[in-house]
Design goal:
By secondary structure, the protein is of the alpha/beta class. Helix content is 48%, strand content 12%. Strands 1-5-3-4-2 form a five-stranded mixed beta sheet. α3 packs antiparallel against α4, α8 runs parallel beside α10 and α10 packs antiparallel against α11.
């Protein structure tokens, strides 16, 4: 295996076996009914941003699907299983399409399917940092390869792979903020610089509350280790009132429950305020209403 590294999927799986003639040709581009495409049970992506899905759906309505999804053919069921492109598939369905263009591949085994799924997704830029880190880790464990090898397969440097994997050392609360796009990977790396867990949590809350840039977060992190007073002095002042940790925790909990963006705003009197629940399609709206009526 090591001799073949650096050549993408060929480093992990052999070429697909020839087709029998009764199934679609490997790598053929077909127009398939969306209803015949099943989700991929090995999908590394766990969170789909409703707002970005809505934006992609609007683009697909106007310009069509720029790149086909990737599927494999299941002859016994006469259906297709998604290998890569679930975000594009969901957006196409949201746009009202009944058919979608797809490239057909024929993995020889579940391990081959896993390799294709992981590499196809990891070579894209729309996975959040935690999804990428979990994908890299799974490649390393399933195929017994090093960080350098993973970099060769997905086209990234060893240092980039290492920095992303280190994000899994962060507490769950910070990992969730990375998954929901509240923090960037750069913010996560800055928080990793802080040795004391209480101080790290304090700086994390400050980054969220004041929407600090990565550079500001790095400045705070450099002074956080053993110098709390200087850290507070470095924190940029904002005139905008800050949300408390309790309010942000409530927002995060509601976002997880409803699967969409939630804003909680309190007035000067903290017993009064408003909750704004965002929706980006009628389907989202129906799901939210059903959840609230339970």
């Amino acid at each position: 295996m090591r001799r073949a590294l650096g050549r993408g999927l060929e480093a992990l799986i052999p070429a697909a076996a020839p087709t029998t003639g009764d199934e679609p040709t490997a790598a053929a581009v077909l127009t398939l009914p969306i209803e015949k495409i099943r989700p991929n049970h090995l999908q590394p992506r766990k969170f789909f941003d409703p707002e970005k899905l809505s934006e992609l759906a609007s683009s697909i309505k106007t310009h069509g699907l720029a790149q086909p999804i990737l599927v494999s053919y299941d002859a016994p069921r006469d259906t297709y299983e998604l290998i890569a492109g679930e975000r594009r598939l969901r957006a196409s369905e949201l746009a009202g399409l009944r058919e979608v263009q797809a490239i057909v591949r024929t993995p020889e085994s579940e391990k081959s399917r896993l390799a294709i799924t992981l590499v196809e997704n990891l070579q894209r830029e729309d996975l959040n940092p935690i999804e990428s880190a979990l994908g890299y880790l799974r490649l390393m464990k399933e195929f017994h390869i090093s960080q350098t090898d993973v970099g060769g397969v997905v086209g990234k440097s060893k240092s980039a792979i290492s920095n992303t994997l280190r994000l899994l050392d962060l507490p769950e609360e910070i990992q969730k903020a990375l998954q929901f796009g509240q923090l960037s990977e750069g913010h996560g790396r800055a928080l990793l610089m802080i040795e004391n867990s209480l101080e790290r949590h304090r700086v994390f809350q400050l980054i969220l509350a004041q929407k600090l840039s990565v550079r500001q977060a790095e400045d705070l992190a450099r002074h956080a280790n053993g110098n709390t007073a200087e850290t507070e002095e470095k924190a940029p002042a904002k005139h905008k009132p800050l949300k408390s940790a309790d309010i942000r925790a409530l927002e995060n909990g509601l976002q997880h429950s409803l699967g969409t963006k939630v804003d909680i705003k309190t007035k000067k009197d903290p017993t009064k305020g408003a909750i704004t629940i965002h929706f980006y399609s009628l389907t989202d709206f129906d799901k939210i209403i059903k959840a609230l009526q339970k």
